[in-house]
Write a structure and sequence with these properties.
By secondary structure, the protein is an alpha/beta fold. It has 8 helices and 6 strands; from the N terminus they run βααβαααββαβαβα. Helix 5 crosses helix 7. Bound molecules: iron/sulfur cluster.
Length: 183
């Protein structure tokens, strides 16, 4: 039996991530990502990469965003479009349960797109150069319980197909969540 896992794009490719400046946070996430991937590889788990909607739609020089900014009909439609092929692949693996075991889906907690248990919210928007309250606006961003926009759409798509799989967020403060998928 081959074990198969679906993972947010940047679990495998951190080059897609928005440029980060909090080194401690980055190091903690990287340590957990490395531990998770090393164990997954050692256990022979096959990993299918989800698309990165932010890189595709906004590129490598994008600003960081909060989920409120991506909560638009078009962003949601694009997430669904990008996930359509993935869900078809997922259905094929599930249809051959004698050969494959799909062990779950890994997102990135805190992400406005790929958060599973946590995403980020805030009253962000407008022309940065014209604002004289920028520090306060930036500081209004906060981690909240809830999923990012792509994960919301993925969850809905799975529900529409009657598929029930564990969805876990990579989060350095709660490492057991993704590591438990490999138990
Ligand atoms: S959008 Fe998702 S896959 Fe892309 S960098 Fe953010 S968390 Fe990673």
């Amino acid at each position: 039996m081959q074990k198969v896992l679906f993972a947010a794009h940047c679990v495998l490719n951190t080059a897609a991530k928005v440029v980060m400046y909090n080194e401690a946070e980055m190091a903690a996430e990287e340590a957990l990502r490395g531990k998770f991937l090393q164990k997954a590889l050692a256990d022979g788990i096959q990993i299918i990469q989800l698309p990165c909607p932010e890189f595709v739609l906004y590129g490598s020089r994008r600003w960081g965003h909060v989920s409120d900014q991506f909560d638009t009909p078009y962003f949601r439609k694009e997430c669904r479009r990008m996930l359509t092929e993935i869900v078809l692949q997922l259905k094929e693996y599930l249809a051959n349960s004698g050969r494959f075991e799909v062990i779950g889906i890994v997102g990135i907690d805190g992400s406005p797109s790929c958060g599973v248990d946590y995403t980020c919210k805030g009253e962000w928007g407008g022309n940065l150069g014209d604002r004289n309250d920028l520090p306060e606006v930036i500081a209004s961003a906060r981690l909240v319980e809830g999923s990012g926009i792509m994960m919301q759409e993925l969850r809905d798509m799975l529900q529409e197909e009657g598929i029930d799989l564990p969805l876990k967020g990579l989060f350095a403060d709660e490492p057991h969540k993704i590591l438990s998928l490999l138990d």
